[in-house]
Amino acid sequence: MQLIALGMNHKTAAVEVREKLASGKDSWLATSAEIMHSAHVSGIVWLSTCNRTEIYVETTSWRALMVWLSRGLQLDINALKKYTYVHFDLDAARHLMQVASGLDSMVLGEVEIFGQLKAAYQQALKQGHVTKHLGRLFESAFSVAKKVRTQTEIGMNPISVAYLAVRLAERIFTRINEQVVLLIGAGDTAHLMLKHLHSAGVRHFIIANRTLANSQALACAVADRALVEIIELSMVPDTLSRADIVVTTTAAPLPIVGKGMVERAIKARKFRAMFMIDLAMPRNIEPQVQQISDVYLYGIDDLQNIAQEHQRSRSIAVPQADLIIAGEVKKFMVWLDCQRAVPTIQDYRQRCELQRDRTLLEALRQLENGKDAKEVLQRFAHVLLNRLLHEPTIQLRNANIEEESITNL
Questions:
Q1: Are 233 and 190 in contact (CB under 8 A)?
Q2: Which domains are assigned to the chain?
């Protein structure tokens, strides 16, 4: 069995490709169950965020996993290899710890990924998809992430994708406090956007979501000195023209906001500018919307330049964080190697017990036949020792020959 981290993120694939691997919670559950049944996978944790989609698995065949994903995504296997990264065992452990610590994010040190990773793990745990080895790996990753954030500058003044999106909006609207914001979605990302926009001075929000209870819970977060309207998702086309800023964060598999819808809204606004930020994966806003004049449409990948401006001061803490992670990776691998040795030790012990019983039976028969007890015991010790050492000796000799052959290549 191998521990494998396989995925694609904003560094390896464009948003159009990442959408193919992205998955909502319901799809994740079905897909995980299928992978475990069909691709020699004993455990799996599926992480899907706006910046990345990754699966952490324990499997006997990563090739079978790649073949399954290629078929499931209807993506040529060579293209899949081009856009994805694969890490095994030690490297998989290091990668997960870097992700949990915010070192592998678009925004260096982002805090959102930790919560998203923990939620993905809890969901997999609930479904019975987490093996002993995967469970230990994730618990180690959560532990090291806390150390990195408390012992290095990575955790100082944390920023997030939502924070950067608001900074971008402030570049377009000098008086952001006077703008009306339409939030489509009511999950964690929407909550962060609401928090940052409210802190920036925005006081008029419209929340659209499929579940009314989630919208109401989100509205309670800014009840103080803010006007919050709650509408049904079906009312978005008729409400869009009232919004100066539109933020989409839902897990819908298809776009919610189309080009024609935005064209009608801009016309009704008498061509006043509209800022739209799509933080969803797959995207909630049709890419063609960016062709419309007076509409400023931005996606996740557009935030990279702003992220670079904010992370320079944090980059000096990366070597220190890497040292912490290296130490935790080493601890985990020692534990993993010990766990993997257990079946071998148990098997060898059973073999030894069989040899012991066999040799003892021979000795007892010799004693029953009247042979000298001292001579029988000496022979018993000699034969037992040879039988116990026979197999390990052959394996050591073969390993030495194999090592010499590699050296002489």
A1: no
A2: 2-156+314-338 (3.30.460.30), 161-302 (3.40.50.720)
